[in-house]
Amino acid sequence: MSTIERDLLSRAELDALVREREVELAELKALLAEWREAYEATPKRDALFTTVSGREVKPLYTQLDRVPADDAEALGVPGFYPYTRGPYATMYRTRLWTKRQFAGFATAEETNERYKYLLDHGQTGLSVAFDFPTLMGYDSDHPRSLGEVGVCGVAISSLADMETLFDGIPLDEVSVSMTINGPAIILFCFYVAAAEKQDVSPEKLRGTVQNDILKEYQAQHAWVFPPEPALRCIVDMFAWCSENAPKYNPISISGYHIREAGATAAEELAFTLRNGFEYVERAIARGLDVDTFAPRLSFFFDVHNDFFEEIAKLRAARRIWARGMRERYGAKDPESWRLRTHAQTAGVTLTAQQAENNIVRVAYQAMAAALGGTQSLHTNSMDETLALPTEKAVRIALRTQQVLAFESGVTNTIDPLAGSYFVESLTDELEREALEIFAEVDAVGGVVPGIENGWFQQRIAASAMRQQREIESGERVVVGVNHFTEGSETIEIDTLKIDPEVERRQVARMADMRARRDAAQVERTLAALTAACRTDENVVPRILDCARAECTLFEIRHAMEEVFGAYKEPVFF
Amino acid sequence: MSETDRKIRVLVAKPGLDGHDRGAKVIASAFRDAGFEVIYTGLHQTPEMIVSAAVQEDVDVVAMSVLSGAHMTLFPRVKALLDEAGATDVLLTGGGIIPDDDMQALEARGVGRLFGPGTPTTEAIAYIREWAAAKERA
User: Fold this and answer.
1) How many angstroms away from the CA of A36 is the closest CA of chain B?
2) Cβ contact, residue pair B69, A387, below 8 Å
3) How far is A170 from chain B (nearest CA, A)?
4) Element spanning A126, H or E
5) Which residue in B12, B73, B116 is closest to A352 by CB distance?
6) For the sheet containing A341-345, what is the strand order?
7) pTM
8) Helix (H) or strand (E) holding A560
9) Model confidence pLDDT, tens digit, residues A494-521
10) B121 and A478 in contact by Cβ < 8 A?
11) CB atoms within 10 A of CB B105
């Protein structure tokens, strides 16, 4: 019944409706009492009836678990505030989610070949995995990089490496996501400069840089600068992108790593959105109009084992974000209210034992991501607890998405689980818990103080420990690990290993590059950058100058560190 | 327990640039719950920093968590530095994403047992207790 029709009802008609509803509810309650009796009388399995996050789940959900009258406001319709049912009006009927497999290893040349392979096999976007030295802002030839060059991702130390990475891949056509945070602003500038070399201007760039430093301090731990200057750089990027690269997402506010580090679903949801609101507050405090940058804020969530809880989490995330942006931060553009997200299946759920079973885990998680309404998806490869994935394992992971998208039928209708007593209750419950956790964050002084005094880190570690205890006691079944273990001893999966020769080659390339470039130009651009760091000037154009002059990652980092200092971790366990 | 005159002292260490510390923190808490004295280094330690902490804290065991794939560089380097520092009786053990054949290769080079994903913490605790008991008898 629409609002207008309701307004037109007479008093008598309304009373009749209310009585009708009361009778229905009384009948339902009587039926439920019978059910309860039957339920209590029957023995139950000796099992944990909780989600992996430790949430109690009731045996049955009914319409008594929520007030359906709230649905118009709490659910709305897809593509409209508060976006619970999906960020777009047509969802997968217009465009399926982007199949985006995270990849990178060895040098830019090898990874470039892998990208071309993935694009040839139907992948629709790229996602760059950098090696640890790059993630921490070290060049491949820095002493701290020894043994780690190209091992866990691709080594990118300069513009030349970035150009090689995308050689033959048109950056105005392919959207590229880059997982980089501590030195994100530097790698972003390498990327913009590499696009320039292809004659692609920044306004044509589509893609995302992760650039979410808060969750690095909380969970993932690849940082460079302390929180305040790091946040300044992020706001600089918001401002620069809104003027120069309007189709590019300058941040992907990420719960993935928070969850993988041990957080529960509610903690992942709450920490991520609270971090998101922190960025919004910082940008507004710098004088940016919320509607100039908020439409390009993007998100990234984990999709873990508990099917319904994960679906509810994505739905709750959209609603909390929309309400916060409109009500609290005064955003007027609906684009600023709309939460768009990438999702990845949960790496932490993969097992080394009976690794082929991971294909099945990934498939269920991927389905939860689709039912939760994700905009893009990475499905993990079955062998990732053992090493970097082989081509075969990556292909199966990609095929899993294609089976889901084209065979399962889940893409035919939008938000098919809406109205489910259970899913709607869970969505409400997760929203409520997230708001409670926001209040706890405020009570510890906010996000940055919570990081500095270890509140986030300790809370995540405590949740990780609780899950470990459940697994070790055997209460939480992990197939092939603590139950059904016959056949777990033998692992016969080919794994990809990185030849130590890769490091030597990359170091040699860097030596060539250093010899070739204009040393005076390097010094001049670095000095200008250091000077800009001391002022309120936006540093992006300065870093772009450094990138074009072929300054290396570590040189640029160092020039900034002179002013910003380096982050020191508070150690807790 | 006969060896409880002095608690077993363990340095839990995260070498290299990798920030994945869920495992390191879980194992550190489990060791502490098991009655070991635990020192956790924090992240991003060089082999030199780890060995210097091990010597300074006079530990019995160094337990390293390596998920970055750099284990073939980091374990031998820490082992060599421990030997150089005269800490030849310190057990170097650990865990992470380490393929079986690499585990065997490292064990052949004097590194203790290494544990892969999904290992219960009790298994690592039992291993360290047995090692300490054997050392006491020797």
Assistant:
1) 39
2) yes
3) 31
4) strand A126-129
5) B116
6) A98-99, A376-378, A341-345, A297-303, A251-254
7) 0.93
8) helix A553-564
9) 767 788 899 999 999 999 999 999 999 9
10) no
11) 16
